[in-house]
Amino acid sequence: MPSAIRPGDVLAGRYRLVDLLTESGNGRFWRAHDRVLERHVALHVIAEDDERAEALLEAARRSATVPDRRLLRVLDADRADGLCFVVNEWGAGDSLDIMLADGALDPRRAAWIVSEVAATIAVGHEAGIAHGRLVPENVLVDHTGGVRIIGFAVDAALHGLPPGRVSTDVADLGGLLYSALTGKWPGRSESAVPAAPQDGGRVLRPRQVRAGIPRPLDALCDEVVNPYASGTRLREVHDVATAQGICDYLCAFVGDPTGLAAAEAAAGHRGTETVSLPAMTDPPVRAAVPEPDPDPDPEPQPEPHQEPHQEPQPEPTSTELPTEAGLPIFDDDNDDVSWLTAPGEPPPPPPPFEDPPERPLFAPAPSDGGPARTPRHPRPVAAGRDEYWPWADTGAGGTGTGVRVFDEDDEPEPVPGRSSLRVAGAILACLLLLVAVVVAFNLGRGRGPLGTKSDDDPSSSPTGRTPTTAAAGPISGVTATDLDPQGDPPEENPELAGLAVDGKPATAWRTNTYTQNFGPGGLKTGVGLVLDLHGTHTVRSVDVTVIGSPTAFSIYVTDEQPADVAGLTPAAQATASEPRTTVDLDDAPEGRYVVIWLTSLPQVPGGFRGQIADVTVDG
């Protein structure tokens, strides 16, 4: 029985069991070591008297006849020691279910991986052999970036299933593409990937689960996964009822696959095998090599009758020395490390500054160059005064604050630019006076300061009468288009947009049905309608009639036709708890386009959907 074998046992005298990977249905899946070829293998083991034993051996024989490089091939199958076992090639990498645990894949990457699987399945179908259980756990991307298939025909036999059918493999190929694009599994076989959402027994399209999926891949998944609910639109042009047709369809979508395998290898797919390494002893610690003396004295040669000179052993250093921070120096030749430490003695202090010579408190500083300036009438130094008075010898370069002695006939030098400033000030005063006279004249004859006619002047009207303000009311001739900037393509039932402004509450524009509501954590931040007023108007209020509550929306008014609401400021926000809601715009903005942007949808069976039955703009 499988329960009697343990790690370390040798099966059939050749395969040493290393790690037990999984156990289910009275069967075990081992990583084993082939002692003959010195390599790791995958080993499926069940009891010899198990009712699946004969079907397992027959499935192994059929799988071994399929020649394809992407298969983890069957290497051996036999009965021994009361057990029935199948030996497969060992693969190291990440299975698709593990990859999807980090999130759905990029559409082109998902299409390429499934196209590789479809090519292998097509080779098996040509030989008359089907996989039978093509779940994400049986698709492996190894560390070289290659796609490998696990358990071809064998996995179905281990699960007690009959030999696989071609139609089952084709449906599973659509399920693999669906799960790679959305992270949900729509197939019937059990998988660790979460199940795909359904609506009335029909699996939701990938674009209803995740935004941004290209339409060609969405249409392929919907037709293969829901063959009876979606019709046969693709099959009229492409043969998607076969594995080869799906492979050709996906290869046309991917285009040139150059670099995709290298990108998968660079993604760092890890090996799934568990390797136990023997314990290692710690490496010996190399003793520090003492640095040589910079000027070593020559070692005296021993006399013939004397013993060789013995170098004295260094004294053990004290362990109580303080730790000093240093810079490590690595020697690349012998792996030694030395430390560059700070000098032990501090540097000598700088020499003291010389004291400057004493001089009076208000004496100017000595000049740093240039010819000395002497007064026009030098005066002799009076008796009893020091050499600094009147500082004639200090030169003109000083900026001292001392008092200068002028002669009575000294003339003050004119300040540069003073006359220009006076002229400029006089001109400015004249200009101000002229402007004041013009303003007073215009105000005196009943006009504005600049001579323009005032708003209350009857003559300012083209007809000579006082203009009247247009009365507020509903704006007619409004047309509507859908706005879905986050869709691919950016459209949201455009053929129904005109029903929101036709004045008939019985007809309505509606959004798609979403599995999640709008908002920061939803598939989108919102969708909406753009109302064209066909002219600039002052918008005072908007009357919105919705179907289903609560429905939250924002209103934007702009002069340019918007392609997105990002960057726009809403004129008003409201949540409709009743069918009809009137939203007053306090600032009465002006513009040609009014956007009704739905930010939260009411819940309906199968998800969330919003509907706008009628919109009226008053201005």
Automatic annotation (TrEMBL):
* rRNA processing in keyword set: no
Transmembrane segments in this chain: where? 423-443
Start-end of Basic and acidic residues biased regions: 302-312
Which portions of the chain have biased composition (kind: Low complexity)?
459-474
Residues of the region (Disordered) are 273-391, 445-498
Domain Protein kinase: residue ranges: 15-272
Q: Where is the composition biased (Pro residues)?
A: 344-354
In terms of CDD domains, this protein maps to: PK_MviN-like
> What's the domain of life for this entry?
Bacteria
Q: Which InterPro entries match?
A: Galactose-bd-like_sf (IPR008979), Kinase-like_dom_sf (IPR011009), Prot_kinase_dom (IPR000719)
Does Transmembrane helix appear among the keywords? yes
Q: Which keywords describe this protein according to UniProt?
A: Membrane, Receptor, Transmembrane, Transmembrane helix
Q: What's the name of the protein?
A: Protein kinase domain-containing protein
Organism from which the protein derives: Nocardioides mangrovi
